[in-house]
Design brief:
The structure is a single chain. It contains 30 helices and 15 strands. By secondary structure, the protein is α/β, with parallel strands linked by helices. The protein has a nine-stranded mixed β-sheet. Strands 11-10-13 form a three-stranded antiparallel β-sheet, covered by helices on one side. Helix 7 packs antiparallel against helix 8. About 35% of the residues are buried.
Amino acid sequence: SIWNLLKDYPERYIYEAVKTGVDLPLPEHIARGLNDVSQRQNWNQPADDNYGLPTEIWREYITRKTRYLEIREKLVNGEINHINDLITYNLNIRQFAEDVINNCQDPQFLYSIYDQLGKMSILDPTCGSGAFLFAALNILEPLYDACLEKMTSFLEDNDNNNKNKTIKQFQQILNDVKFHHNQRYFILKKIMLNNLYGVDIMEEATEICKLRLFLKLVAQVTPNHSLPNYGIEPLPDIDFNIRAGNSLVGFANYDQVKKAVEGSQQFIEVYETFKIMQTCNQTYKNKQMIQETLNILNEDLNEYLAREYGIDVKKKQEWEKWKLSHCPFHWFVEFYGIISRGGFDVIIGNPPYVEYSKVKKDYEIKGYQTEKCNDLYSFLIERSIYISHQKSWLGMIIPISFVSTNGFDLLRNLVQINYVKTWISTYAMRPSKLFENVDKHLCICIGKKSLISLQKSISNNLVYSSKYYRWYHEERNYLFQLLKYVIIPEHLFYLTSIPKFGTILEISVFEKVIKEQKTLGEQTSQNGKYSLYHTRKLRYFLQFLNQPPTIINSLGKTQTTSELKTINFDLEINCNAVLSVYLSSLFFWYFLSLSDCRNVNKREVNGFLFNLNKVSNSIKLSLSELAQQLMLDLQKNSIMKDINYVKQGILKVQFFSPKLSKPIIDEIDKILAEHYGFTEAELDFIINYDIKYRLGKELEEDDD
């Protein structure tokens, strides 16, 4: 019955940003384009303030309104009835969870919710000073609060408190609350002790994390100078929750430990003692004893692990140096209670984006399937998979290379095998970026594990993708409220990438492109006499040319650049036709959808599907003529800039302004649409793809 909340109050669970201005009738000059693509001349203009969000153009407004109507209809019809649907349709999950609690009529159901909240283990394996753990705390707090308020309501409405077991449990819980400063203090303390766990290789960071949590707790207390310790009760002991160590080095589970220590009776005896103490939940009563036993276990495990690394533990200097550099963290004993029952419920974070080769001199990893990915973030995701239980959730902010770089195939496959559903949203770094000081194209990956996923092949697991999001600073506050996913069929994982598509229309366009079944890379000629050139730099347009850009050195002589890549063809008409293809908005969309969005690489350039043998002569001739027209226009609009290079001094470099030639590029896309068989709506999408940013103020710096 909880899903009736969505049917009965659909507006409540759709984010405010999605609903802005959607109840207003469209102006006539905009409405005309709904059923007639040729009438969309005004759709790229800024939307009126009453309709649009900051910086929104009419095209975006209409897309948003259409999305709103679709979601609302699904809600009203009862088609959204699973927690996964709330993610897929980007609804307000926190509001829904609170409403489920507030509308609960069954005391036993309420107790189950409260009980499960108290058992939920949330880990950040690279927690730093605790930003993600604080975010988790802020989400959990109102849910706990709603539970306690509802318990109070049940007690007030119940005339037979002593006869109902669940009501008695409520009474005991609320009595516990009274022994604390206030209800919020009780809730925060409970979350810190029962829900939040963190590990970081920097011990200083973990101490800061604990301090921040303590300060959050103490801030709920009004000091009483007449009482001992100002009336502040002893702070909870979260030393066993926030730990220092290397999340990547150490034994993750019992099977690994058992294999390493096989035959060691001494270890088994110490472990059994430790297990009994943990099982009896005496961790906080006998902290010193627990810690001493834990230290013995860790030291034994360190020795076994060191031997796997080829370290002679009898050589004390070598042994101590290895421990200091590797900082082993043995998940199985450090978080015994959680790992022994299957692992963590939720793993979140923003792992380091660091090439393994850069830290290998400090420490090495062993036994990782993703080692060839050569990045710490891939190892952290793999480790997360094996320290979480089979119905757990993953939420990580990681580089876009995860979805679009050949070197991360192993990681993509591992995630697809282990997660029955994966939601991936991707984000540019221009004009704004997710983290102010991180120049990376990023993605947010959410994964739902399931026992079913391990029993099926990758093809049975679902991957949901968003479009590649750009945004201005003014759009940041509602960026995530407008998030939209679409299921990506496995046969569209082209070039091993997970495409960054956000609509069914994009899937339809790509379905038509891949029917070509022949790439441009297969049709080039290494010794061909006709050439086109491109740089690896990426802005809002790709730079393909029929001749190298002009570069003049301090002596007034023209020089070339090694940055330029050359593609050769045997026939001039083919060379020019392909030049048009590479300059089209279609190729730009394809490139951003499948690449790392950082450099123009050979993989995407050669991989575009355009069969020159299937192209009619008239289309090929039209593309060739448009290419020559575009080259002349680019040259006409180009300017020379003085650029100061460290090694070469000041050079005069030719810069182009492709946005000034957009009308010619549009003509190219119209010809390509005829060849691929695009509908009017599909062509309209391609021509206007990313239009707000491509035709806005061009960035002066490179997008790298």
